[in-house]
Amino acid sequence: MSVRNLSDLLHDAAKSHGAREVVSYFTGDPDKDSCARLSYTELHRLAISNISLIRDLHPSKSNVLLHFGDHVDNIIWLWSTIYAGFTPVMSTPLPRSPGQCIKHLEHLDSLLEHPVCLTRESLRGQFPETVPLRIVEIEHLQARSDSGSVPDISDTREDIPALLMLTSGSTGPCKAVPLKARQIIASLAGKCAALPVDPDYTFLNWIRLDHVGSLIEIHLHALYSGCSQVHVQPEDIISHPLKFLQVIQEQRVASTFAPNFFLAELNRCLDPLKTVKLDLDISCLRYIVSGGEANVVATCSRLSTLLARYGAPDNVIVPGFGMTETCAGCIYNRTCPRYEMDQGYEFASMGTCIPGIEFRISSSAGSIRIPPGEVGDLEVRGPVVFDSYYNDPTSTDQAFRSDGWFRTGDTGFIDGAGKLNLSGRTKEVICINGVKYLPHELEVALEEAEISGIAPESVVCFAHRPPGADTEQACAVYQHSYPSDDYAARSRVMAAITHRIMLITNGSPYILPLPAVERTSLGKISRSQLKADLESGKLCQEQSQNEEQIRHYQQSMFEAPATPTEQVMVEELAGLLQQPTHTLGVESDLFEMGVTSIGLVQLHRRLQERLSLDDAFTVSTCMSHHTIRELAKACHDCREYNPVVTLRPHGSKTPLWLVHPAAGEALVFINLAKLMPDRPVYAFRARGFGDGEPYFTSIEECVRTYHSAMKKLQPRGPYAILGYSYGGMLAFELSKLLEAEGESVKFLASLNRPPYVSPRLRQVTWTECLVNISYFLGLLSQDSFRKLLGEMRDISNPEAITRLINMADQSQLLALGLDGKKLEQWINVAFSLQEIGRSYEPKGSVAHLDVFYCDPLEFLGVTREQWLEKLSAWQDFSREETLYFAVQGEHASALGPQNVQAFYKTLRKALAVRGA
Description:
Largest sheet: 9 strands, mixed
Helix content: 25-40%
């Protein structure tokens, strides 16, 4: 392919290979019949259709930050931004700590010169309340879409970056790496020369697209080569590593990427199957490029042998070296593992350069090349290498030598065959699953945690790879302040350190307590000396003693499973950890037993399948219940219908109860609850979402069910209740029930729902309910909503589902985890609620009832003034004067991310007026 700039890349792919596709598997179900397909022709058309939206939104700025949760959104809006003539910036995951998140966003706002941030309404809650960035939800953009003339595609200017990629920020504030069109194109040409592909090939990606490897190594590489590409969410592959091979077989994948830790996971899954051959054919597979951390030769050798049983070539694993600054892979090894085994290497060679780059090994003192075999600093240069960090001249000056060679930060040597071999980093960093962390930042995090049992300022962290281990992990050595024979304290500190480091790195650390740590005359602890002592075996006695004491404590706490659920968990955990079931007690801490974050994802999926748990059982459930017994109870709670979703469990003010709209779910209230730190917040969820759950048969049954659940969590008043739309009717009936018991309802409000159901609503069919709820869920644009509303009245339910799925926003389907079957179930719940409410007529009264109002549903055909008149009828059912509060947005978006902050302020005012 001959391309001049990045705009040409998709344009030419659509022209020459328009039928090739972006295939994206739905979250949680990597099955060939459950995926979205977007041809290159359609992607090109979508990008063009969004040009005017981007230009109107961002007329004078050059950078657009893209913050999306799935591959389809990222790909569509990446090209929309490029076609509009601006520079897309791929957003990395936001820090979990609110303080760190704000600091990160402030840094981005300054570094990127006040960019617009595009995201989805469903992701708006990830951002703190006070955000320095201008955030725009694409639902809002699409709502303003028009069908005007087709705008021109902008050429990528040579003087501006085609892309900006953010470094992880794990070793300090992130940097922005500008990748210009000529650099990217040179890189793609070099990759094709080093790893030849045929247009009939398919590329597979399962890493987030904010990683340069997935974006350039897979997405752009596939476009450049005219190949189709498949994208799967990371958690789906990590939770079931063998599905990686199944997708390769189903989609006939030839090229993909997998870091070393995942190769180790594949080995772990395939090893027990040496004597049982799977029904698997991966003869299509040519390359599994692997980078990010050193590849262990033994791991590569073992896996190559196992994969060869299913048709893969014996050199299918291709270790490589690359950085964001070099457009991902730029040095590849096509002879692994045979070459390394012949040389007796422990770690795989990186190989040789692609066209467009060269490397050298230099001394730290100067730029003189070091002879082959001697270790020095790795430096690179060439058309594939970037020329400066964005808006950061200091980092640029530090990164380049005066003669233009880029300092990679790695050390290595060139062997006799001219292949690059890495030996370490010039900086002390810890590489976990391909992400690098500074030791002192982990040390500070542990010191700030003030873990009882750790002597002050005595924690030291460094990288550690146990003998025979496949991957590197963080090691935390500390001086303990508890008695050496206090096994319980030793175990408690181990768990606390593990939890803290896993929150930061998603990796389980190796932990070693010492009775004393040696300090220099200045009172400092030598990290390098401790690391050397551990690796040399000098601390083996302390290691053995610690392991024995932890083992002794765990045995003393051992308790066998007492229920079938606990037994299933023990069996799954034993398989995950490759330990006998009789060694796992139900009161032992999962993290102490060695469960990593990846293991947690795998355990979650296994338990979901084995125990038939629905989506109410989440990875967060596993993270917040650290023992098998706690987790078993949480599973039991998830299996039984519970109408209450606890959105915020703590607070000193009156709890707020939120009653769902006709959609029946509590998801709509999540963003609102995040703004309310001072009170418990609970929301109701209709019955029928779980398998086998019966729908409510009457309003009375629904209200009494909610009343009973409410009383269990809040036995006494005063109560505060807000009902959204349909929920206003339920909130009114719930309040009457509470007042009849003598309870005080200090606050009762209805959001945009009159007391009487209009004749029009009583006539709504199942298919119209489908369209309305889908619009409410953000699956349809306003234009699609209007179009489908008139088309759906006379078609069958299955046909309606099929038509809606085809017109729906595919990335929003992915975000909600919906397919045709799950959407149909949701609509069945919503329609059942509508049916029991058709004949509802309000009776009686409550002490007081307030009304929040916004624009009505469009299909009702009434003005805002006429709607307010209908809402005013609530005064007939309130013994005190009804108060009315105008809120932003229209019926479906009143609690959406763009309006929820304003709604919260109004709600807070209304609560204060009623003394709640």
